[in-house]
């Protein structure tokens, strides 16, 4: 079973509360069936992948978004959230273009494993597409 660090959940909470308000976040938690024991998720705590999936499903429902739109908005905000939490420099050195950045994500995850013990990050491989696009292969 995959597990995710609370950093992911905190980023989602940050996105929802900043764009839609704290009441919307509370409703999202309620719809997900997740009961918080404290004010928020802990960034360095490991949570089950099932919890992450419940949060994403609830976000789609509460915000009225389809899954692709929800995940795209989260991805954009996640980069901002990472920058706000001191990862801006390391994100910049991953590459000056999208292909290099994605190619170096595994190196970033190797580095983060020292901060997040037991981290089992996904792996990425980039290959050129037939029309000049890049294809991202995701392994978890």
From TrEMBL:
Residues 5-140 form the Heme NO-binding domain. One of its GO terms (molecular function) is guanylate cyclase activity. It comes from the Eukaryota. Signal peptide: none annotated. One of its GO terms (biological process) is response to oxygen levels. SUPFAM superfamilies: Ligand-binding domain in the NO signalling and Golgi transport (SSF111126). InterPro entries: H-NOX_domain_sf (IPR038158), Heme_NO-bd (IPR011644), NO_sig/Golgi_transp_ligand-bd (IPR024096). One of its GO terms (cellular component) is guanylate cyclase complex, soluble. This is Heme NO-binding domain-containing protein.
């Amino acid at each position: 079973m995959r597990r995710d660090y609370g950093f992911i959940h905190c980023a989602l909470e940050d996105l929802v509360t900043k764009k839609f308000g704290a009441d919307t976040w509370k409703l999202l938690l309620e719809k997900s069936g997740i009961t918080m024991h404290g004010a928020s998720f802990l960034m360095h705590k490991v949570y089950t992948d099932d919890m992450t999936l419940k949060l994403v499903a609830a976000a789609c429902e509460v915000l009225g978004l389809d899954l692709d739109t929800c995940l795209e908005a989260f991805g954009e905000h996640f980069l901002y959230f990472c920058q706000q939490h001191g990862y801006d420099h390391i994100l910049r050195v991953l590459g000056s273009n999208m292909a290099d950045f994605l190619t170096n994500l595994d190196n970033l995850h190797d580095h983060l494993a020292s901060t997040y013990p037991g981290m089992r990050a996904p792996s990425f491989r980039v290959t050129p597409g037939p029309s000049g696009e890049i294809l991202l292969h995701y392994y978890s």
